[in-house]
UniProtKB/TrEMBL annotation:
InterPro entries: HotDog_dom_sf. This is Thioesterase domain-containing protein. SUPFAM superfamilies: Thioesterase/thiol ester dehydrase-isomerase.
Amino acid sequence: MTTAALQTVLTVPRRFRGPEGMANGGWISGTVADALNGLESAVEVTLHAPTPLETELTLEHVANSATLSHEGTLLVEAIPVAEHLSGPGFVPFNEAARAEAGFPGWRGHAFPECFACGLREPGDGLRVFPGPVEGADVVAAGWRVPFTVADADGVVPASVVGAVLDCVTGWAHFQPGESALLGRLTLQVNRRVYPGGTYSVVAKATGREGRKLFGESAIYEVDGTMVAAAKATWIAPR
């Protein structure tokens, strides 16, 4: 007996780009993970190829996996994992906001148009600018959630949460002008994010192996409650 697949068509608006011409890796990871199980538990998302913008893509959910493909080419795959993500530790909002002054992207940004960490207009991009936290081995930013990212129910969708958790792990490694592409993101969302809210975004570099860069991140409410967490694998250019 086979399980019927649920197929839908997905098109990524240009607004949600990361590197020019492709979807932000965290945004597409959150989208596919949410299609799998609504992020009721941790989901591991593997990015096999860049996701094009403004293009009709096939999102398929069957049994314990969700995939995104284009004309038969697998782009993204999500599977549930039995894992609890603990995050890199809380940084108070005011301290996280102060760390933004040290954001390496001010001095050189490989993807200045990125939806999450790019230098775009307020309300258009998320403007999450993580910088080093004094006396700690983490980077952090204060996230002031724009109302322009709310869904029809007035909450922030998993796609946007994924975008925030993604980019910050890269900046835990990057110096000005450096870049890499997201290869895998494991996501866990515990609570809703609300537009107009203020949150601490924190990330930590957890290792490097050849071209692979590893990191972990989390979003915290002002009282230190962890809203969502992720761990990421990035692939640096040759």
